Amino acid sequence: MSDPALDLLRRVFGHPGFRGEQRQIVDHVAGGGDALVLMPTGGGKSLCYQLPALLRDGCALVVSPLIALMQDQVEALRQLGVRAAFLNSTLDANAAADVERQLLAGELDLLYVAPERLLTNRFLSLLDRARIALFAIDEAHCVSQWGHDFRPEYRQLTVLHERWPDVPRIALTATADAPTRREIAERLALEDARQFVSSFDRPNLRYRIVHKDGGGVRQLLDFLDAHRGESGIVYAFSRKRVETVAEQLQAAGINALPYHAGMDASLRAQNQRRFLQQDGIVMVATIAFGMGIDKPDVRFVAHVDLPKSIEGYYQETGRAGRDGEAAEVWLSYGLGDVVNLRQLIQQGEAGEERKRLELRKLDALLGYCESTQCRRQSLLGWFGEAHGGACGNCDNCLDPPRSWDGTQAARKALSCVYRTGQRFGAGHIIDVLRGVATDKVKQWNHETLSTWAIGSDLDERQWRGVFRQLVAGGLLEADIEHHGALRLTALSGPVLKGEIELRFRHEPEKPARGRRTRGG
Ligand code: ADP
Ligand code: ZN
């Protein structure tokens, strides 16, 4: 029996069979249906529109926001003998005119185009004269304000559906938390499209989160000890931090290279090339690194600072273990990270609504970090996916956290924040609680407060844990205008009055060692 889709998959792409839901998606779109495809990075989204493009008459229009990815895809397709081209700002007028001519002459199977170009009146009327096989909207989360990559042009893509109601549309993304998914369907008028939701689970990744002790670099070195000679990525908060962490790793004899958008372009490209081609390079990078990096044997991804959201964390950690072999993802964070990130959001240029949204995302991530639940379960839960039982491959499963009744400690902490005037960071408040007579304490006469030395039962690390968890739980907030001074929130009242019981995670006796993760 003839099976044109499978024939093409084998003959053109050289794959023996379909993966996951590719078969159903290809059949649905090739048959003229609309689809919304949620598949993790590396899942094989491209084939879901490339095969229907070859199966249907005419040229498929692929909307893609990233010029570099567009060019890579077109290059790869051409090598397979597929008639593909792109239109974006890198082409000069002659080259662009040539592509347009090919489109009208029916000489193209796939045309990748940047949204701003597609949406020009000129290009839309050009399309009126072409034969269109389908529209593929890649990185569809760009339409969502909730998503991490909002592109206003994506909002106008509904024009495609209005102008060509009979042409099938397929929107694809690897970002699939429920709010983004709803917004994509709504904004792209894809409510009636069939949704294909793949599992986002990456069973070969082991998740681990530790609390920062100082800058976190010593803990990072311990973690890297278990990964000697392996390729991996270390994500850091800022360009400056990338530089210093890379230097510290180099000084410790690790083959580390920096990567961030502020570096000289040729050095950056060179570092990227080395990471891809050589074994055992540790790339210390901002999140500018990784988009479109397809290196299968990345054995670990470490966040030495807190990322911005659960989606970001998932994307970045997803670059580990693409080959399916065991890989480890590790994150260290502390109260300082929360302050830094809040500051970044609040001092950013986004509007108020956007800022509130980003703060909420940060809170969701903090909740995830402090949770005692299986990491995989809570991560997948965030993407609306149930995971049967605990995974046995994350820190909370392997090393179940103990918790303690923190009600009294929380009351002491909050009342000390209040007594000292809600103008100090955790360090000073902890000194007051523990009765440490520093110069600052004397300067402010804080030995005379009723909360002086009422917390000598806990050591400094334990108190840091209390403050971190109070901030993560929204019971205290860091005032960005005043250098991270801690302030009470609407939620603090019931705790102060003893109306709420709180449980906290035990702080590990020693900072968790990466080495321990090896044996399980
Ligand atoms: P995504 O866009 O979802 O991140 P890609 O479309 O780039 O993923 O595919 C990821 C990798 O998986 C590519 O190297 C691709 O060749 C490979 N791949 C996709 N589908 C199949 C398949 N059916 N069989 C084998 N390999 C596949
Ligand atoms: Zn688990």
Automatic annotation (TrEMBL):
Tell me the protein's name.
DNA helicase RecQ
Q: Which GO terms describe its biological process?
A: DNA recombination; DNA repair; DNA replication; SOS response
Reaction(s) this enzyme catalyzes, per UniProt: Couples ATP hydrolysis with the unwinding of duplex DNA by translocating in the 3'-5' direction
PANTHER family reported for this sequence:
ATP-DEPENDENT DNA HELICASE Q1, DNA HELICASE RECQ FAMILY MEMBER
**Which species is the source of this protein?**
Lysobacter soli
UniProt lists the gene as recQ
Q: Which UniProt keywords apply?
A: ATP-binding, DNA damage, DNA recombination, DNA repair, DNA-binding, Helicase, Hydrolase, Isomerase, Metal-binding, Nucleotide-binding, Zinc
Enzyme Commission no: 5.6.2.4
Recall the GO molecular function terms of this protein's record. 3'-5' DNA helicase activity; ATP binding; DNA binding; four-way junction helicase activity; hydrolase activity; metal ion binding
